[in-house]
Amino acid sequence: MPRPLDLQPLWQADRPGGGSGPALGREWGLRHRPDWAARGLIIWPRGGQGCRLRLHCPCPGAWAPLAAEARARLALRWWADSAELWVDGERIHSGDLFDTACRWPLPERWWRGEALDLELRLRSPLHDDGALISSRIELEPLDPADPLGLLEATATELQELRRGHRHDGAPGEGAVQVLGHAHLDLAWLWPVADTWQAAERTFASALDLMERFDTLHFGHSTPALYAWLERHRPALFERVRRAMREGRFEPLNGPWVESDCVLLSTTSLLRQFQEGQAYSLRTFPEWNHRLAWLPDSFGFAAGLPALAAATGVRWFCTHKLAWNATNPFPHRLFRWRSRCGAEVLALMTAPIGTDGDPVAMERYRLQWQHASGCADALWLPGVGDHGGGPTAEMLEQLALWQAQPVAARQRHGTLRSYLEPLESLAGQLPVWRDELYLELHRGCPTSRPDQKRHNRSLERLLREADLAAALFGRPAPAATEDWRTLLFQQFHDILPGTAIPEVFEQAEPQWRGARRRAARRRDRVLRRGLAATATGAATAGSPASTAESWCVVQLQPLPARPRTLRLPAGDWWLAAVDGERRLAGQPAPGGGQWLQIPGLEGVGVRHLRRHPASAGGGGAAAAGAVAAPVEGAVRLERATGGGPDRWRLGNGLVSALIGPAGVEQLFDGAGTPQLAGPLAWCRWRDRGEFWDAWDLAADYRDHPLAWSWQGLPQWLETGPLCARFVWRGRCGESPVRLDGRLLAGSPWLELVLGTQWKQRHELLRLEIPLADPACRWAADTAGGVIERPATARTARERARWEVGAVSWMAAVGPGRGDGLAVLLDGPQGVSATAERLGVSLLRAPTWPDPGADNGWQRQRLALLPCPGGWRAAAAPQQATRLREPLWCRPMEPSAGAGAEAGGAADRLFPCLGEDLQLVALRPLPADDGADADGAAMDAEPESGAVLLSVQNLGPCRRRFSAGPDWTVLGPCDAMGQPQGAGEGSRHPVAQGPEPLALAPWQLGHWRLRRAPAGSAAAQSS
User: Fold this and answer.
1) For residue 289, which of 271, 280, 373, 1009 is within the disulfide window of CB 3.0 to 4.6 Å?
2) Rounded to whole angstroms, how far apart are CA atoms 786 and 780?
3) Is 386 in contact with 185 (CB distance < 8 Å)?
């Protein structure tokens, strides 16, 4: 019985001093990678260094008689950025970090005694040492009955593997379902343009292999990829569609791209599923679309089941939790439930990027059976990450072992056919009521903050443009493409900042262009809709000839609170029911002046009139007018007993002690101290992790670095509308500037850290020592709020020492929950213990982007005391106010505008109320009314219908009303499909302005329509 020929000891490599010698067991590998050396790997250093291996390979004499009955294959595995196999001076195979193996059939001449000169040209990865993992020549029988016993060694290994799992040597019950797959990152170590080429090659290869192998089924993800193929490669797309109609090419979709699922807001993650499901339902109608395929994203928010289920998803599939570095994830098949009770069935899939190795397949099958109790396992062969898919060599190996009685049964089929019988087990499955936290890649919320800023600003503009179109019932140019631009850039290696620099350079014009278009679309609709009101405001009062009419709009349905903002210099008047009121102003050192706008209720409008300063301040009326009083005016005074360098800054809602140590104390409105000591701005070394841009060094706290401040904080503004200080310092070679600001009527202290960041492999953090220990802490996440214990007691809790937060986090004390919240301007890495809160601000990884995070950076956050807890302080709403400015624009009167605007009122949409947060308000169908794949509505929408999505962020049932200006057509799902219709009814009966209800933590959706101007509901308003 011939055994495989191990080639590892036979490879020759050049020696540093000249000549050549055995490549295996070289001193460098023994010294630097003893673990690899012990496994028999050939090793060379990282950093893109080359390694050439040569081997003169004759056919062993004892094998020559087997030529008529056997096939010989050169089986190689490597870990290299680039790999080339050359035979007799001809390149035979190329691979890389993703295509890491080959099984090349040796030619007939080798059997006849002609030796082959083999050469391997390898290049190590930049971030890791390179290795030739294995190399050998294997024999396969041409007759599946294997009369020569060539497969006996592997068969024995399979039997021993089963005995190790307390089985006898037979395969036993259960089959392996095989589905060809090719994981394709839309961008990572290559730019997006390469992805399209890789997709084209992968799809064409899979289709060609289907013609050769009748059993092959192939599945691939990503609506964005299919949409590109449909537009730019229609012939290939039609081949794909034919294979789909035959049931052999399976769309594994769900969201628009395989997005990040931790750093996205509820609005964005919901839109990912809406857009992806919409495209799939329209384009592939012969398939059901009840699964979300996210094998490689870096963890999953606790609210994802509610968002996915609202768009028709029943199954969630991933493999990534197998990467946990500390605690293995306990389930392979389970029910994943959101806090509101919505759930999906979850499958931890087989690894992606595998091949047809029978031992690996059997090992996984046995593990799956032990972990899940289910007999049949799923196997996903195919080259991945950069596409590729199954190869002929893989399929030939699968076919060979399919005919062996010692191997488990194989069947080729779709993922849907595999999942269908599992669905009947739902009632028996364990329930997971938590986030799916990946115990790895904790640096992703902090790396490349510019991408997080782009994402936040574009999402806001798109949501505001949708809101404006919904409020004024105006058809707007299609927003679908700009939404798709945003969703594409939320791919799990772009938004986290873990790609090469070319990816971000090419994304920059995409971000800018989409922002410009969204802002123009929003502004155009708002200006036209508000034109009549602006015209009236311009003609009221005296004198209008030099006055500018302005509108201030709050584009979120928030409770009324005064807002202080900076506007151009001039004499400002506020239109009110009892006449105009003059607004008090405070000159701003950078130009313009600070004004306080009285509270706006819901999506509300305030009309202003501005006289430029050169126009005499508004004439005689202005000279005698008394400015409206400032609500919550800012006062700055020396701290009593604190020395000349300490100042007390406050506005009645929050106050701070500013001194030589910066922000030394923070007080709530009752004067309760919040801090155990001054805010600590910290800097640490962050080096040594394998996945550089992805991972924080676990031992970073053991390596503190100096941070020096220069002098005392300097006051630039002193109230009554704004007080601001600046404090300058240095972190290594990087200058740092901290701006602290308190505005009139604001319940938070705002902090802005700016720096010209020049460091490498360092971590910048803000540590907030808490005056009173916390018992737990809360943060927002996509699909809701997650609360965690402040003191970690289990291994799984201890592993969550850094997590992502989207827009806020808050410490929660015992009793009524008093604490302190940190409001964030974008997704950040955060941490919490009973004694402190922490926010990671900047990093400086060098792989795969050598200059990541370097350059000018500006990080903005705010501290909000929360007497009574984060819900009582309305932390989610306050975070929205911090992140989303009011819309303030001068209005140009136009003839006939009053008839078109329909009488815009001071309140365009009512305040939602306590605990309720607007997720989206947008027209149905798509904004242009024509782009069907951007809307996903089978039913024809009512004229002027809009989709309202609201989430309850509290543990109490809440009711709210859409107000008298809106008719509620009925509840629906997130795709806009009506729910609760009577028998035979296409739509539910209109409910008028009745209150709508949400259960605790629930995400709800309704179809609304603006009440006709002459209706009773409209007249009652």
Assistant:
1) 280
2) 6
3) yes
Residue in this structure with the two tokens 């005064």, named with its chain if needed: 562
Q: Which helix (H) or strand (E) holds 489?
A: helix 480-489
pLDDT of residue 52: 97
* Contact between residue 810 and residue 866 where contact means Cβ atoms under 8 Å apart: yes
At residue 621, the 3 state secondary structure works out as helix
- 3-state SS, residue 552: strand
Q: Are 86 and 92 in contact (CB under 8 A)?
A: yes
Quote the CA–CA distance of 725 and 143 in Å, as a whole number: 83
Q: Is 431 helix (H, G, I), strand (E, B) or coil?
A: strand
CA–CA dist 1015, 280 (Å, integer): 39
Find how far residue 40's CA is from the centre of its chain.
Answer: 40
Compute the Cα dihedral for 121, 126, 131, 137 and give only its sign: negative
Tokens coding 326: 């500390």
Q: What is the pLDDT of residues 956-993, one digit of tens each?
A: 999 999 989 899 999 999 999 998 643 333 334 445 44
The encoded tokens of residue 1005 equal: 């959706």
- Give Cβ neighbours of residue 445 (< 8 Å, ≥ 6 apart): 262, 263, 452, 496, 802, 803, 804, 805, 827, 828, 829, 830, 840
What mean pLDDT do residues 227-242 have? 98
Q: What is the structure's pLDDT at 478?
A: 62
DSSP state of 772: S
pTM of this structure: 0.94
Question: Quick one: pLDDT band at residue 475, thresholds 50, 70, 90?
Answer: low
Could you tell me what percentage of the chain is helix, strand and coil, using 3-state DSSP and rounding each to the nearest 5?
A: 25, 35, 40
**H or E element that contains 161:** helix 152-164
**The two three-digit tokens of residue 992, written as one number:** 């008028």
The enclosing H or E element of 203 equals helix 192-212
Cα separation, 170 vs 162, whole angstroms: 8
Percent with pLDDT over 90 in the chain:
84
Segment 62-91 mean pLDDT:
96
CB atoms < 10 A from the CB of 21, how many? 11
- Tell me the residue length of the chain: 1021
Torsion of CA 752, 756, 761, 766, to 10 degrees: -20
Token reading at 255: 């969201």
End-to-end CA distance of the chain: 91
User: So what's the pLDDT on residue 930?
Assistant: 38
Q: pLDDT at position 642, please?
A: 73
Q: Which residue has the tokens 């503004």?
A: 717
pLDDT digits (tens, 9 = 90+) for 586-607: 999 989 999 999 999 999 999 9
Residue 1016 near residue 965 (C-beta atoms within 8 A): no
Question: What's residue 927's pLDDT?
Answer: 39
Please give the average per-residue pLDDT across 553-565, as a whole number. Answer: 96
CA–CA gap between residue 358 and residue 905 (Å, rounded): 71
Residue type, 675: L
pLDDT digits (tens, 9 = 90+) for 882-941: 999 999 999 886 533 333 333 334 899 999 999 999 999 999 874 333 343 444 434 444
Tokens of 61: 């004499």
For the chain, the average pLDDT equals 91
Q: What angle do CA 185, 189, 190 make, to 5 degrees?
A: 80
Interatomic CA distance for residues 807 and 821, integer angstroms:
11
The helix or strand, by DSSP H or E, that contains position 535, with its residue range, turns out to be: helix 501-539
Contact 801, 281 (CB under 8 A): no
Name which of 887, 891, 886, 885 is nearest 609 in CA terms. 891
Q: Specify whether the CB–CB gap between 548 and 580 falls below 8 A.
A: no
ω into 720 cis (within 30 of 0): yes
Q: Is the pLDDT of residue 325 over 50?
A: yes
Helix (H) or strand (E) holding 87: strand 82-87
Predicted pLDDT of residue 623: 54
423-428: long-range contacts, CB 8 A cutoff, minimum separation 24: 423/314, 423/345, 425/333, 425/374, 426/335, 426/345
Bridge pairing between strands 995-998 and 958-961: antiparallel
